[in-house]
Amino acid sequence: MLLDFIAMTVGLFVLVVAADKFVIGAVTIAKNFSVSPLMIGLTVVGLGTSAPEILVSAIASFQGNSGLAVGNAIGSNIANVGLILGCTALISPLMFKSALLKRELPVLMAVSLICYFLSFDGLSVIDGVCMLFMLFVFLIWMVRLAKQEQQNVEIDDPLKQEILEEMPASIATQKAYLFFAIGLLGLLVSSRVIVWAAVNIAQSFAVSDLVIGLTIVAFGTSLPELATSITSVLKKEYDLAVGNIIGSNLYNLLAVYSLPGLIAPSAVAESVIYRDFPVMLAFTSTLFILGYGGSGKSGQINRLAGFALLFAFCSYQYVIFQSTIS
């Protein structure tokens, strides 16, 4: 038991470090191929920060632990909004000034609902293909959006400016490939260790791998987003902090939640359908409402809303804990 927790802790630490190196390497390689910074920020960075969830869910699905994969995807989205945005807003209120973000919010809401309805009859290969197709369409839309914004020099979208300011300093191409390779290797190894430890912990406590995925694993794989959002808000890059979460949640649904269907098709647990997914939809709806604001005001997540999000997240975790001992 102790060995499992040590392995989980070390695995999560390596996961966070490896994800950072992986993103730096991927971003620099893209820059060296003359990809625009805005396009990198909207696509490469988002996929890079979701790499931990993707690899953990892929390995779990290949091993037949689809519950862990499902819990990781949904639990990460809940943690992103409730825990990460909640904590970030307590540090400093978050303002939604970017028009780019307000274009992504309805997409996130629509994708969340579609994935929910696809889950009622279980996750099949067809469902997984549908999600990957939506991911493909979303990426094409992001690329076109980035090109339009890049050409529109008259409009300085706050998110565009913050992405430009946060681009890492250029490094040699050879070093970028080394970072990318080391990061990917670290992600693969740490993900394998995390899945192994998570399954052992679940068996030791006689709980499902779904519960471990919704809690420990979801929190751990969300740590890169937590670090990015807190760093962004400390630099007063509020749109980047929120944009990081919106993008991550979209990738978690389309690139992560699709994996159990593609690799290990199976029924989705009733608790996911009637408890976890509705909670995720509630958090997503709250983010949507806060993002658009009201009465002509720009959207924001103030400290009170941040506290409410964090309280709701803690309450949800308590409900899950209670379900494991009942």
* Overall morphology: globular
Radius of gyration: 19 Å
Cα-to-Cα separation, first versus last residue = 22 Å
Helix content: over 70%
Strands in their spatial order, largest beta sheet: 1-2
Q: What's the β-strand tally?
A: 2
List low-confidence stretches. Answer: none
Q: Treating each run of at least 4 consecutive H or I residues as one helix, how many helices?
A: 14
CATH superfamily: NCX, central ion-binding region
CATH topology: A middle domain of Talin 1
Largest sheet properties = 2 strands, antiparallel
State the CATH class: Mainly Alpha
Class by alpha and beta content: mainly alpha
**How many domains, in number, for the residues?**
1
Oligomer: single chain
CATH architecture, by name, is Up-down Bundle
Series of secondary-structure elements, N-terminal to C-terminal: HHHHEHHHHHHHHHEH
Average pLDDT: 85
Percentage beta strand: under 5%
Structural overview:
It is a single chain. By secondary structure, the protein is mainly alpha-helical. It has a single domain (2-325), classed as Up-down Bundle (A middle domain of Talin 1). It has helices at 2-32, 37-49, 51-62, 66-91, 99-118, 125-151, 158-166, 173-204, 209-221, 223-234, 238-256, 258-263, 270-292, 303-325, and strands spanning 94-96, 299-301. Helix 4 packs antiparallel against helix 11 (238-256). The radius of gyration is 19 Å and the shape is globular. The two termini are 22 Å apart.
